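Hey, quick one: can you model this chain's 3D structure?
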Amino acid sequence: MENKIGANYIRAFKDADIRGIYPTEIDESAAYNIGRSFVEKGKYKKIVVGYDMRLSTPTLKAAFIDGARDGGATVVDIGMVRSPMLYFASGHLNLPGAVITASHSPKEYNGIKLVYAKAIPLTAETGLDAIKKQVEKGQFKEVKSRGKHKKISLRRQYRAYVLKGVDRKKLKGITVATDIGNGMAGVSMAALDSKLPTKFPMIFAKPDGSFPNRDSDPCLRKNQKALVSEIKKSRADFGIGFDGDGDRIAFLDENGKYINCASIGALIAERLLEKELGAGIVHTNLTSRVFEEVVVENGGKPQRARVGHTFLKKMMREKGSVFGAEHSGHFFWRDFYITDSTVLTLLAVLDIFAEKKKEGVSFSQMMKPYQRYQQTEDVVIKVENKKLALELIEKKLHKMKPKSIKKFDGFYVDFGDVWGSIKPSVTEYAIKLMFESKEKSKAVAVQKDLLKFVKKISHSNK
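Sure thing. Here's the predicted structure for all 462 residues.
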């Protein structure tokens, strides 16, 4: 059987997932072929599928499911869910699966995250490239019978899993302003709101793929204005915001100040190391230096991975790490099938804060010891040729005479009073820059200098 694709699908296949602009880079014909190839390559008889609320999701989801069923696999459909719910389903049911989503990307994007059984993600090296090649050919084996389509809900099992061992009484009297961002996190937060004594006043709770109130990334200050207002309005102890598929979480203190994700990760790592001294904890080039320092100070083993959820998860599996954190609001848990869990992250922070609040300590006071440095927001510059751009950037860096340059996931450069990362984007044809210092002005100055250079080479290579 043959099925020709119409989209410029090659641009949608990244190192860590499939993601592109709809319908020019990913469309229904590509989704069908991906579903068909996924089950044929894996010889799967059953897979689990979930999907988000993006405007193009209904037809992409239907096409992917048709492809999987035409390949002979029964599809277990868990409905409109967050990506972490799909990971839970894959782990809980021991099935390979897919979630139709573009995560935090803008509304014109959509994509597909694929996992093996036990929520092990596919990457370019572990299966995505093979699928890409077959998608291009559009040729598939004939199967004896079409797979079935079954709809189930795992919400009750999921709640029981994440709330196991939680001291609910301890969390009474806490208010957390919550910005759902019109994404998929609303269902999980509504469940917590009904099961915990904590109050979660919510804004933008209705799923809406047009993102009418803000862009999807909750870690950017421009997307936090409404949450800051809600924190003040509800007199919240702190605030949280989510991205489109609910696998990123951002924290703001009681004054509406954004707390770097590395600081939140350091807070959690310190508590985990009290229970498991010497445990491995994963970070990346973009994670603030404070995270690595706190891990070492508390007897842990910091482990550096490439930026991207699939790469952190891979290292955690290889090293047996207990926890991992990215600057982008991803937090990874060994005890959640070695995947992202914003809910476990929130519950961990709530547990620690409940003890501090009892002592009269505010959220900002609790976080102060972990805010040693100031980090710039990451800036993304579009480039046509990432390899060439990085070669030119390396020459520029050497001329700036830093104390050290480490070639890992791009470059990690240390100027002494300023340090940071220049790396190729995993999900876009772009270069990402982020710098850090005790004084933010110094980090901003270095970032601006390199930003100007990258823009110049990007323009000259068009």
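One thing worth noting: The radius of gyration is 22 Å.
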